[in-house]
Amino acid sequence: MLLAFETSCDETSAALAHHGRVLASVVASQVRLHAEYGGVVPELAAREHLRNLLPVARAALGQANVGPAQVEAVAATRGPGLPGALLVGFKAAQAVAFVLRRPFLGIHHHEAHLFSPWIQGQPPTAAFSEFEPNVSLIASGGHTMLVHLESESHHRLLGSTVDDAAGECFDKVGKLLGLPYPGGPEIDRLAQGGNAAAFSFPRPMLNEANDDFSFSGLKTSVRYFLRDRPGFCGDPQRLRDLAASVQAAIVEVLVTKTLRAARRLGVGCVTASGGVACNRALRHGLAGACSGHGLRLRLADPSLCTDNAAMIGVVAERQLMRRAETTSPTAEILPNWPLD
Ligand code: KG4
Ligand code: ZN
């Protein structure tokens, strides 16, 4: 049984993994705390992790009905992430491993996202299913990247955003439209009743021959669009149309570039994870494009798209099985840990 912690940003999470199964997963989200400020406040996030970490760990142990003595290994996110936030979960996990005299593993946050689409079902029966080579899209509030997973132990970063992340673009556009933070889920909801072809927004870097993304220009074009149309957001239908049109631009870029990379590299499978992978238009767009090209699609369950310790636990267990490699109990966090 492996006890895992995740505290890289604004979710405090603990989970228990055992032989590829997620037996328990508990997430305490800080989204309401940060909503007041329109974004994550690093110092508040760290303090909140400190408050929530032990209750969340106790809840995970309770959910799986196990005691600390049954924990055979401990893991935590080592990076990348907010330094103060990472520090709380990483050092607490090292202390738990030390006290229980168990091996400790520091896990790369994005590596965990890459494997989250392979966890199927809900705890306590959620299990890791058979892996196949794939191209993986990670789209969250802090990152947008495409990764080629040639095997379970070999991955290569293909491209990433040169400025804003896709989730950041959703959130900044949400702010311009006067929507609550985070804007992503709000735009998704509004777009359901809107016409995606009502307004035309740029599709940045869509036709460039690389796997990189850029979203800051799209946000700026929405700002100019609204500046030239005072009072535009006062009309609920126009607001829905605008949300649908902006969402369509983001989704088209993500879907097109992911599919292009998958076809170029000749993989049979595409996966997607990260908070933005909750987006219904993105899930629908990827499903349509993959079925059109005979590619299998694995989308992380929405509960595993946003940050969680279940994905940390599953990856840590597999690393332990494969390489029997652990992290020093005195190792430090790596807030800027690159994926490659
Ligand atoms: O992965 P995540 O929880 O945190 C980071 O590591 O950043 O992702 C949060 C991001 C936010 O930008 C949020 O607006 C976005 O994911 N998001 C969505 C949706 N749900 C969450 N964006 C678009 N549509 C959604 N349904
Ligand atoms: Zn994340």
Report on the architecture of this protein.
49% of the residues are buried. Strand 9 and strand 10 (154-160) form a beta hairpin. It contains eleven helices and twelve strands. It has two domains: 2-124 and 304-321, Nucleotidyltransferase, domain 5; 133-300, Nucleotidyltransferase, domain 5 (2-Layer Sandwich), CATH 3.30.420. The strands form two sheets. A seven-stranded mixed beta sheet has the order 5-4-1-2-3-7-6, sandwiched between helices. A five-stranded mixed beta sheet has the order 10-9-8-11-12, with helices on both faces. With 340 residues, it is of the alpha/beta class. Helix 5 crosses helix 6 (183-191). Bound molecules: 5'-O-[(R)-(carboxyoxy)(hydroxy)phosphoryl]adenosine and zinc ion.
Could you state the order of secondary-structure elements as H and E? EEEHHEHEHEEEEEHHHHEHEHH
Pick out the low-confidence regions.
none
What overall geometry do the principal axes of the alpha carbons give?
globular
Strand order of the largest sheet: 5-4-1-2-3-7-6
Give a short account of the largest sheet.
7 strands, mixed
Structural class by SSE content = alpha/beta
CATH architecture of the largest domain: 2-Layer Sandwich
- Counted beta strands: 12
What is the gyration radius calculated from CA atoms? 20 Å
Output the CATH homologous superfamily of the largest domain.
Answer: ATPase, nucleotide binding domain
